[in-house]
Automatic annotation (TrEMBL):
Coiled coil: none annotated. InterPro entries: AdoMetDC_fam_prok (IPR003826), S-AdoMet_deCO2ase_core (IPR016067), S-AdoMet_deCOase_pro-enz (IPR017716). The lineage of its organism: Bacteria, Thermotogati, Deinococcota, Deinococci, Thermales. Pfam families: AdoMet_dc. Its cofactor is pyruvate. Keywords: Autocatalytic cleavage, Decarboxylase, Lyase, Polyamine biosynthesis, Pyruvate, Schiff base, Spermidine biosynthesis, Zymogen. It comes from Meiothermus ruber (strain ATCC 35948 / DSM 1279 / VKM B-1258 / 21). The keyword Lyase applies. GO terms for cellular component: cytosol. The keyword Lyase applies. GO terms for biological process: spermidine biosynthetic process. GO terms for molecular function: adenosylmethionine decarboxylase activity. This is S-adenosylmethionine decarboxylase related protein.
Length: 151
């Protein structure tokens, strides 16, 4: 299977997944959400610091009921928010080290049987000083680009 790591810079990647048309039974499965948060760090070669914390929340006026969970990893965190009645899931995977983005996406889609998804990827802490000179060059280049675009 192809490793879909991207060359990243700064503090680390933050992958956000918005999943639509997911299996509502799986989204409502408290134990599945806990299991995914428990297993995904190891699957992504990350280090779990604490066991997952998972909470079912009731429907409130204007809001759907669902499950929210988070696991703290040495590299940062993974969070899952499910909305079974809407067949929607939101997942954040934030890490200070590179990870296989495609594998993470595939696993989440498989676990919750997501029909359609959108992904967003942000390189967090672009000026984080892993290599101070490189961070300065990246920031200067981005500032030049923006100034040229907005005049």
């Amino acid at each position: 299977m192809e490793d879909t790591r991207l060359e990243l810079f700064g503090f680390g990647p933050h992958l956000m997944i918005d999943g639509y048309h997911a299996n509502p039974e799986k989204l409502a499965d408290f134990e599945l959400v806990r299991q995914v948060l428990d297993q995904l760090p190891e699957e992504m070669e990350m280090t779990k610091v604490l066991p997952p914390v998972v909470q079912r929340y009731p429907a409130l006026p204007g809001h759907a009921e669902g499950i929210t969970g988070v696991v703290i990893i040495a590299e940062s965190h993974i969070a899952i928010h499910t909305f079974p009645s809407e067949r929607f899931i939101s997942v954040d995977i934030f890490s200070c080290k590179e990870f296989d983005l495609g594998k993470a996406l595939r696993r989440v889609v498989e676990y919750f049987e997501i029909g359609r998804y959108e992904t967003y990827l942000i390189n967090r802490g672009k000026e984080y000083p892993k290599d101070l000179e490189l961070a300065r060059q990246i920031a200067a280049g981005e500032r030049e680009y923006i100034e040229a675009r907005i005049g």
